[in-house]
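Pilot study result, target chain (291 residues):
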Amino acid sequence: MQKKTYAGQPAITLNNGVDIPALGFGVWQMEDLQECENSVIKAIQTGYRMIDTAAIYQNETAVGNAIKNSGTDREDLFITSKLWVQDTSYEKAKSAFLRTLDRLQLDYLDMYLIHWPYGDFTGAWKAMGELYHEGKIKAIGVCNFTVEKLEELKADAGVLPVINQIELHPLFQQKELQVYNRENNIVTQPWSPLGNGNAGLLDHEDLKNIAEKHSKTVAQVILKWHLQEGFCVIPKSVTPSRIEENFNVFDFELSEEEMNTVCSLDTGKRLFFDPKDPEWEQKMLNAVADI
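Predicted structure:
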């Protein structure tokens, strides 16, 4: 299969042969729909070709409008959305997928992900596999899956995801899960790759020193670390200058010593939600939304 390029950007080949841009644009927490649409248009104009949304974000319509109004051909974009917990079953997954397509105003998705490893995710995975074979999805994957849940999926379906999208940033690196993903040819895709601005990460002195050396910002250094680790990364911003800044990371390289410095920041502590937490699982199972 000929490798697809996205405006000259680095791409990662998934385990089914599909190529995905290494750097994309996320829209989590973009609740103002006009702001979301404007931000996605700005991202596409800047050069981003991968856009990552989800049904539960309730901004798929805004993303669809942005795609339509961006002036960029659909075939030149890589669009991802996600199946919410309330629809994690065989029948519901198919109808939820069609609703997502309708909101995005698209004929197909480049990638569809199971958002959390709860409910009948093996049934949903079977439905997604059928949609994949029908050509309605180019690649299927998961989010927030632990090694145990990935093994369960593997045992039931025999087919592993192309991507596992997980919380991952310098303060929480999930190295065991990284190794599992790598050994099973699953691409690791960090969500909240900058730590959502929490825990003083962007003010860390070691990172500031590295950034100063390269005449870059700390955010750019962190994103470059993700890319050099082989991750497929999706930073989010609604600020036009930050959208541009986050994309401007292809003109420098971190040394091995600098990469090791970032790796040494791992605390092993999450900043967000633990998929193994039964209280969080129950909360998600109860989080029925009008999607």
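One observation from the pilot: The first strand starts at residue 11 and ends at 13. A full batch analysis is planned for the follow-on phase.
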